Amino acid sequence: MSDDFWILLAMLIYFVVVLTIGFVYVRRSNSSTSEYYLGGRKVGPWLTALSAEASDMSGWLLMGLPGIAYFTGASEAVWTGIGIVLGTYLNWKLVAKRLRIYSKVANDSITLPGFFSNRFHDKKNVLSTCAAVIIMFFFCIYVGSCFVTCGRLFATLFGFDYQTMMILGAIVVFLYTMVGGYLSVVATDFVQGMLMFFALLVVLVGSITWAGGVENTAAFLQSIPGYLSLTQTAVPLVDASNNQILIDGMPQFGEPTDFGFITIITTVAWGLGYFGMPQVLVRFMGIRSAGEVKKSRIIAVFWCAFSLTAAILIGFAGRALIPGEFLTEAAAENVFIVLSRMIFPAFICGVVVSGIFAASMSSSSSYLLIAGSSVAENIYRGVFKKDATDNQVLIVSRFTLLAVFMFGVFIALDQNSSIFQIVSYAWAGFGASFGPLMLCALYWRRTTKQGALAGMISGCLGVLLWHTLVRPLGGVFDVYELLPAFLLSLFVIYIVSKHTPEPEKDVLAEFDHYMDEEKD
To answer: Which residue from 187, 285, 481, 493 puts its CA 20 to 30 A from 256's CA?
Structure first.
C-alpha cells in the first residue's frame, strides 16, 4: 500500500477519536447554557491548562512560527516567543485566579462579554453587545487562519486541491464544536495539546539528526548573514516574482537589517495580547476552583515554553536540511509538514501531522464556541429577548457558529495568505480591545462603565487605524499595532473613569466582596 494510504489512515483514526469525544458530551453539554459554554465550572487543572494553551496556539505554532524562523532567522521568531512565554506566565499569575472568583461573584458570568456587563452593572448590556461584536469580527479572521492551515496541510501532503480540503477540514471542526460544546472542546484540546507536544518533540529530534546534528546545523546557519542574530534579521534576496533567488540550489541572502531595540520591544509586546484573549480567559472562568490555578499555571507555562522553543528550532533545522525548498515566507510555513514526511515512516508521519490539524481544530473550535456564546447569550438574550429559554439561546448560538464558519471559509479561500500575519492582526485586536479593560476591571476599583466602554472601543479602533494607516508609513511608525493600541486603551480607561461619576455603591460593594474572596 502507498505511503498516502498509511498517512490518511493515521489521520482518520485521529478524526474518529476527536468526533467520538464530541458525541460523548452531547447530553451533558446540552443540559444548560452553563454546561454548553463553560462546562459547569467543573474542569480540572490539567484539562484547563492544556486546553488554554492548545486553543491559543492554533496552526500558528506548527506552521506560522517555524515558517518565520525558516525564512528570516532567529530575531523575530525568538523575540515573539519570549513575549508569548512572558505573557502566558503573567496572564495566569495576574488574571486567572481573580477572573475565576470575580466571574462567579458578578452574577455567575459564563461569557466574557457577560462578565464585563455584570462587573459594571450595565443593565442595558451596552458593554456586552460591544464586546460580542468585536469577538465576532476578530474571530472570523482567526477562524480563517485555522482553515488556511487545514487546506495547506492536505494540499502539501497529498497534492489535493487546497480549497476542497480546506472546506472539508473546516466542516469537521464545525460539526464537533456544534454538537459537543465546551466540555468536548476542552477534552479534545487536552488530547490535541498532548499530540502537539509529541509532534514537536519527534520532528525536532528527527530533523536535527537528519541535518547531521546540532554542530553541523549551527555551522550552516552561521554562514547565513544575520540568521542566528537576535539584533539582526536575515534578508532573502528575491526576484521579480518575490521568490528567493537560488544559485546551484542554495538560497541567496543580502546584508542583514537591524532588529533594533524598538522593534524588539514591539515584538515582545505580543505577550500583552494574552490579557485580552477570550479563548484563554474563558478557561480561567471554567476551572474547577481558584485554588487549582497555580497547578494549571505551572503546566501551561512549561508546555508553552517547550512548544515555542521546539517550533523555532524546527524552522532552523529545516533551513539547514532543505535550504532551497521554500522560496516565499508563505511557502516556508509548510516546513513542519515536509520535514515530517521526509523523516518518518508513513503511519508515524500521519500521527505527527495530525498535530497540525489538532492545533487548528483546538483553536478554531474554541473561536467558534466563544463567538456563538457571545452573540446568543449577550446580544440575543441580553438585548433582544431577555426571557429566552436555554434551548432558544443554544439554537441562536449554533446559527452564529454557522455564520462564523462561512465567513472563515471565505477568508481562507486565498491559499497564499500568511498564517503568521493573519494571527498577528487578530491577536492585536483582542489584546488591545479587552486586555486593558480586563486588568482595570480586576485591579482598579474606580473603573467606571463609561471608561470601560471607551477603552474597549479605543483599543479596537487603535488596532484598525494603526495597522491600516500608520504602520504602512514605516520608519518609527513600523510598530506592531498591539502596543500603541493597548497603551491608548489604558489611557482612555483612566481618563474617562476619572472624569465620570464614581461607580454606584452596589458595584463598589461587589468589588470589595470579590477582593475579600481573593484574599482567602
So the answer is: 481
For the chain, domains (ranges, CATH) are 3-410 (1.20.1730.10)
The backbone torsions φ and ψ at residue 106, rounded to the nearest 5 degrees and listed phi first, read -80, 70
In this predicted model, what pLDDT tens digit does every residue of 187-209 receive, in sequence order? 777 877 888 888 899 999 999 99
Q: What is the pLDDT of residue 311?
A: 95
Q: Contact, 491 vs 484, CB < 8 A?
A: no
Q: How many residues does the chain have?
A: 520
CB-side neighbour CA atoms (13 Å) of 396 = 19
**Cα(466)–Cα(104) distance, integer angstroms:** 36
Using DSSP, state whether 444 is helix, strand or coil. Answer: coil
Q: Report the interhelical angle of 65-72 vs 293-321 (nearest 10°).
A: 40
pLDDT tens for 279-292 read: 889 889 988 888 99
Which of 112-116, 347-351, 426-430, 490-494: highest mean pLDDT?
490-494
Residue keyed to cell 470601560: 452
pTM for this prediction: 0.87
Q: Which helix (H) or strand (E) holds 66?
A: helix 65-72
pLDDT tens digits along 340-395:
989 888 898 888 888 777 667 666 776 777 777 778 877 888 777 877 777 787 78
Place of cell 508609513: 473
**Distance (Å, whole) CA 100 – CA 96:** 6
Question: Which grid cell sits at 142?
Answer: 482567526
For residue 214, give the nearest of 225, 230, 228 by alpha carbon. 228
Q: Is 446 helix (H, G, I), strand (E, B) or coil?
A: coil
Report the distance separating Cα 345 and Cα 362, nearest Å. 26
Q: Quick check: 263 and 421 in contact, CB under 8 A?
A: no
Alpha-carbon gap, residue 421 to 13, rounded angstroms: 32
What ranges in 251-326 are assigned the alpha helix state H? 261-268, 278-286, 293-321
